[in-house]
Amino acid sequence: KLIYATCSIFRIENENVVMKFLERNNEFKLDPFNNPINGDGEMNGGMANIMPWDGNCDSVFIAKFKK
Hints:
Distance between the termini: 7 Å
Oligomer: single chain
Number of helices: 2
Low-confidence stretches: none
Radius of gyration: 12 Å
Strand content: 25-35%
Structural class: alpha+beta
Mean pLDDT: 92
């Protein structure tokens, strides 16, 4: 397992980095996970943007990979 996380909301620092990583590391795939704030169902195919209003927290982007 590999987790990529930022406190950014910018696509260039989040989803774009994830896609470039996957292009260069084909042994990794995104791994769906439950919402870390409330435990609800799988998050966006292995990526999630958590916003301050979601859980009284800072913004965070999370991507989970498995090899």
